Amino acid sequence: MKTSAFIRKYYLDRSDSRSVKWSRGRKQGCLPMWIADMDFRCDERVTRALKDFIQAGDYGYTNLPDDYYQVFCSWHEKRNHILYQQEWIRFTKGAVNAMYQIIHSLTEENDAILISTPLYPPFKAAIKNCKRKVIESPMKNDDGYFTFDYKDIEKKFKTKNVKMLMLCSPHNPVGRVWKKGELEELFELCRKYHVLVCSDEVHSDIIMPDQEFIPSLALKKYQNQTISIIAASKSFSLAVFSHCHVVIPNKKIRDRFIRYQQENNTASVNAFNALPTYYNYIYGEEWLDAVNNVIFDNYHYLKQELGGYMEMSNLEGSYLLFLNLGRYNTCKSAAECLADRCRILANPGESFGKGYENWVRLNLATSPENIKKAADSVLQLIRSKEK
Ligand SMILES: Cc1ncc(COP(=O)(O)O)c(C=O)c1O
Questions:
Q1: Total count of domains within the chain
Q2: Other residues' Cβ atoms within 10 Å of the Cβ of residue 150
Q3: Taking all residues of the chain, what is their mean pLDDT, rounded to a whole number?
Q4: Are strands 112-117 and 162-168 parallel, antiparallel or unpaired?
Q5: % of the chain at pLDDT higher than 90
Q6: First CA to last CA distance, the chain
Q7: Cα Rg of the chain, angstroms
Q8: CA angle 157, 163, 166 (to 5 degrees)
Q9: How far is the CA of 142 from the centre of ligand 1 (A)?
Q10: Best residue for ligand 1 mutational test, from 234, 243, 347 (most atoms within 8 Å of Cβ)
């Protein structure tokens, strides 16, 4: 579907809704480009299927659809060329909830867990809240192209007794889709130092046309040390349903996770919350491809308009752009400057890592019209500074 046709059919005006994103925008008189959900209506066939469920009025204890696992596995086989097995899959109430359950079940209090920063803040919060030690490894940045600092990671593995690496793949906020070689180098270090890998792959369906997403579990040599967090929540904007998969091929590790779930009564799955994922995997592919095109167009527009003035992340995956306002930032934080001067709400760079006060994260999953509005107001800021 062409972008213009998709926008006509699926752009969702959420300005008066209870959407978290737009409610705050309304309150502050700003165009909301923070938080990670989309301004697009769900595919109409998915909505119809959900309506049928609601209309039947049977809200008793309910099983998953018989072919749920088959549908899940087919999606990932078709899109990412990986064959997951049903018995590897467990459920959690969302991806952040999965992080907490993985940390609790597979590490001990005070264990060291490494993250590469800048990074989506709930990773660090989860490690801290579970009473584990956060070990940060700052990424290298070459004009918006972020890469792991393997030397630093190895040094920290060696000296800090790290037990787990929490990976974001694709990476929020720097937009990288990790290459096979990058993952191999990282996982080889994990193998050498006996570090488990927890790979959050919730952005793996939003991949720019010239990129290939490599699931962590596709690297067979390292499958036994890896746990993946997989969801359709970002792909199809299903945050309200809090439905997520934890995929664990290693039986010993999986048994520990299952025991934790049993002891904490978190093993069951909510069959209603699973339905939007199920129906989107069946009906949503064309919708998703159109969304990817919209995001790619939006990224290119911003790059063309603002790229000459400021550093921005190389968007390979996800719909989140990391932008360095640099000398155009007139406040303590670039997010404050964007809100005050441009009437744009963005996630503050400093929430992702130390030293990113001049950066903001912008959500591009909206209409080209909103993107243009945002670009125009940032250009005005630039011009006022250049005068
Ligand atoms: C990498 C990543 N993981 C997890 C989440 C949150 O997922 P959930 O709402 O399922 O907890 C987000 C949300 O933006 C995210 O970007």
A1: 2
A2: 15
A3: 97
A4: parallel
A5: 99
A6: 43
A7: 21
A8: 90
A9: 26
A10: 234
Query: Which residues lie with the beta carbon below 6 Å from any ligand 1 atom?
Result: 36, 94-96, 120, 168, 172, 200, 202-203, 231, 233, 239, 244
71/25 same-domain check: no
Tokens of 159: 């000296």
Domain hosting residue 122, numbered range: 59-283
Instruction: Specify whether 381 is located in the same domain as 341.
Output: yes
Residues 39 and 11 in one domain: yes
**The dihedral of CA 28, 32, 33, 35: what is its sign?**
positive
Task: In whole angstroms, give the CA distance from residue 94 to residue 229.
Answer: 9
Q: Quote the pLDDT of residue 374.
A: 98
pLDDT digit string, tens, across residues 339-358 = 999 999 999 999 999 999 99
Record the tokens describing residue 217, joined without a space: 């579990």
Q: At what angle do helices 180-192 and 150-160 cross, to 10 degrees?
A: 20
Residue 49 lies in a domain: no
Pocket test for ligand 1, best of 93, 172, 178 (most atoms within 8 A of CB): 172
DSSP 37-88: --SBPPPHHHHHHHHHHHHHT--SS-PPPTTHHHHHHHHHHHHH-----GGG
Residues 6+ apart with CB under 8 A from 84: 72, 73, 76, 217, 247
Tell me the pairing of strands 344-345 and 31-32.
parallel
DSSP β-bridge partners for residue 137? 116
Report pLDDT for 387.
76
Domain end marker among 230, 258, 283:
283
Assess contact for 40 and 237: CB atoms under 8 A. yes
Per-residue pLDDT, averaged over 181-197, amounts to 98
